Amino acid sequence: MKPKAVISLLLCFLMMFVFFVGCDDSNGDTSDESTNDTSVTSEQSESGEDESSQTVSEDPYTDENGLYSTKNLPEFNSEWVNYGEFRVLVCSNEEQTTYFSEEIEPLYSTTDQVIIDGVVRRNDWIYDTYGIVVKAVPVVNVLNAVRLEISSGLDTFDAAMPFMPSCAILAREGSLFDLCDFSHIIDLDAPWWDQNATEAVSVGDKVYFTASDMTIMQKIVSSGIAFNQDLLASYFPGYNIYQDVYDGTWTLDNLYTKCKLVTGIIIDDDIMDENDMWGIIDTGPSFFYGCGEQLVTKDNNNYPIISIGSTVRSIDVAQYVLGLASESKTWVATVADWTNRTDIYGTVVKVFGEERALFMALHFSAVKKLRPYGINYGIVPAAKYNEQQDDYYTKCSAAYAYGICIPLTVADPEFSAYMCELMAIGGKNYVSNTYYNVVLKSKDFIDEDSEKMLDIIFDSIVYDPAVIYGFSGLNSIIPDLITAKSTDIVSKLDSIRDSVQQSIEELIADYED
Questions:
Q1: What is the pLDDT of residues 277-318, one digit of tens each?
Q2: What are the distances in angstroms from CA 465 to CA 199, 281, 305, 333, 475?
């Protein structure tokens, strides 16, 4: 169920949009829109805006130059200038070495320079236009920090970006504002908010957190299948993998067949491990999502429902994926196959980087780690179940995606909401488009076909509510069966169905309370 914009003209030059799930706009601000057009401006070569930014647009979310604009926002409250700062609670790099926040304030020298530049330009725009300094408040554990703030009555931040499962915990504890309470400020239908994420995390008419272009983590933890172009040409001369994607013939069977031909022993020690040759390195769940299935979807009331097992296709897909995964030593490797257990996920990158794997299912966080190897590789979406499947689907590992939320303890929730909207608009123009168009398209995947593949991948991101809410272990049902080398999805699902259903009902009750 996709959010649909309901456009109502309140005054001759004020346009408001209301989120589809019935957000109450009784708090709507009917004051005049600011006469000062605070649209973001920048150059394509520096910030990586969409090509549309170079042409005149009639899009209600863009200005006359096609740039994402603040024209639909109510007037900025001049008293907010006295706050001086907008403080965002974020994950630091003290313990989290991969999925730490780099997009609120430039804190780390390891961040790509163009991202640093984009963050600075967005923050400078906010300061120059509104007099507010954007500050990151980095902590080791955002969930614990929010709980401490609530229990101790502190005032250390104005908004928070926990990982989505932590957001779900806070929402169920009654610690977050419903973002729909700010529908006069926050437009969840705007292109700088992720409607796919909102669809997944919302329950009924409540949206306590979601993803936006205030962060780029939801892009960083989305996935594709990288392939070694030189190895592919060597093993399969004349084969054009991109054409398979375009033709709709890039399927799991296609992938499996090629991987089977490539996998083999390099070091003859009777052990297939990181020192040997693999068709693909993956864990299996991404195959399931690439087939267009989910563990949990929504009903007509926007309540979660168990999806896996509800159709014959979902069982067929799960059994097929599990059957392929059970042949792990013949075509696919997982971290469970490594002999050296010191840095199992670093070994994944190393094996692919040292050209001992034809394919690697990757999060885009791995792209930076592959750069030192200097290999020639491209990207394609996750393979389809079969050629009859219409579209490609991309799994977002939402366990490591950030949710944007406003805890109940913030000093001025209206200010927080306004700044979250500004950060998302500025982030869309300066940061997320820079990551997508400059870092990925112009640095890491520079050939024309790979760029088209990125468009396919990022246009089809799937957030599974089960990954975010857990639902009594339903989120781990596929990995658990893969570990057990079992294809018996039916028995496993039957054994947990009652507890999963109870967990869903408890979630709904918590949200409706």
A1: 999 998 778 899 999 999 999 999 999 999 999 999 999 999
A2: 9, 25, 9, 27, 9
- Domain containing 192 — which CATH number? 3.40.190.10
How far is residue 38's CA from residue 477's CA, in Å, rounded to a whole number?
A: 48
Tell the burial category of 126 from Cβ atoms under 10 Å away from its Cβ (0-12, 13-18, 19+). Answer: buried
Q: In this structure, are 211 and 257 located in the same domain?
A: no
Q: Is residue 193 in some structural domain? A: yes
Neighbours of 37 (CB within 10 A): 11
Q: State the number of CA atoms in the 13 A half-sphere of 162 facing the CB.
A: 23
| 476 CB burial (10 A radius; 0-12, 13-18, 19+) | middle
Residue 283 CA to residue 280 CA, distance in Å, equals 10
Residues 384 and 405 in one domain: no
Bridge-based pairing state of the strands 377-380 and 304-306:
unpaired
**Digit-coded pLDDT (tens) for 30-54:** 333 333 344 444 434 444 544 444 4
Residue 500 pLDDT class (50, 70, 90 cuts): very high
- Tell whether 15 is covered by a domain: no
Q: Which residues contact 397 (CB under 8 A, 6 or more apart)?
A: 221, 222, 223, 363, 467
Per-residue model confidence as pLDDT tens digits over 384-431: 999 999 999 999 999 999 999 999 999 999 999 999 999 999 999 999
Residues 325 and 201 grouped into a single domain: no
Of 199, 302, 305, the C-alpha closest to 511 is 302
Sheet holding 159-160, edge to edge: 133-139, 85-91, 159-160
| Residue from 357, 433, 439, 361 nearest 394 by CA | 361
- Is residue 1, in this structure, part of any structural domain at all? no
Residues 273 and 359 in one domain: yes
Q: Structure tokens of 149?
A: 């703030």
Which domain range does residue 386 map to? 223-395+470-512
HSE at residue 262, side-chain half, CA atoms within 13 A, is 27
376 and 435: one domain? no
Q: What's the per-residue H, E or C state across 364-377?
A: CCHHHHHHHHCCCE
3-state secondary structure of 59: coil
- Total tally of structural domains belonging to the chain: 2
* Residue 79, in any domain of the structure: yes
Residues 131 and 165 in one domain: yes
Torsion of CA 220, 289, 199, 162, to 10 degrees: -40
What single letter denotes the amino acid at residue 175? S
C-alpha distances out from residue 312 to 247, 309, 315, 495, Å: 26, 7, 5, 18
Q: Which residue shows structure tokens 């069982």? A: 315
Phi, psi angles (nearest 5°) of residue 442: -105, -5
Query: Do 379 and 426 sit in the same domain of this protein?
Result: no
Task: Specify whether 417 is located in the same domain as 482.
Answer: no
